[in-house]
Known about the structure:
The complex is a heterodimer. Chain A is 54% helix and 18% strand. By secondary structure, chain A is α+β, with helices and mostly antiparallel strands.
Amino acid sequence: MKKRKWFINLLKEEKWLNDRLAEGYACRRVGSLGGYVFERSERPMVIRLDYQRQMSAEKYEEYKGTYADFGWTHLKGSRWGSVQYWQKPADGRDEIFSDAGSQVAFYQRLTHYALTTASLFFIYTFILFNGNIFAALFDIKASYLTEGLWEMEGAMFWRAFLFETPFAMLRFLPAWIFGLAIVMALYSYFQYVKRKKEYA
Amino acid sequence: MKHPLLPLSETMHYILLALKQPLHGYAIMQTVEQMSEGTVILAAGTLYGAIENLSKHGWIAPVPGETGRRKVYRITADGERVLAIERRRLAHLLALYETRD
């Protein structure tokens, strides 16, 4: 079974993946552009998502080795600051964090991740729209550069409009991703503060 | 100034105590599970983070000469000093339990 879905919120992605596994599947592959491949599985499986900042090759081997010793299979991830996908058969020891401190640290890393994503898309949008972030976010028309497009009528308009849409998306989507990443950063940050208060 | 890892969390405490003998990651989890009579079961991410944190502060260190796939760690002299501080703190608390009863 193949599914295509796109997530900015890593916690929602984890929830969605585990909902699929609960239907009797195991995840076989996580693609880089929102493609997931599942296969039927007799054993109930669990997936956990972690985020790690950039680390040395040696550290990364140790990181992966530790998880592997605990029975986790690495589905996807790189050592250059990325989300790490871990899967294992469910056996009651299904969490990757077992104490308050590491939970808090996880949400701290998550905030950092969302902020990095937001900054990246902010810079891209800023350059593309000469600093006019609001136009990028709220004025979709500004992303269409064909002269006189909005004065055209009928088939001619639709042809020109549809032709340019993929290019316009390259202009306005990054702005939206920027907005979503900001929301995600705030959400992770509040989770971080909340857990920290709960535990400390 | 107070050290960010002090007072030690239960996780850190058990790991430092376990590493009075050289152990690799998974063996730390098993040892801690035994030592705590099954009450502290470390998960992979927590253990990895704790090892990284304790190494960063120089309280544990990889044992040189071990060439297996897994790194073997052991407590350092600094780590022992931290345990000594914690021991005094806990002994003081325990003494209070006795006198305030």
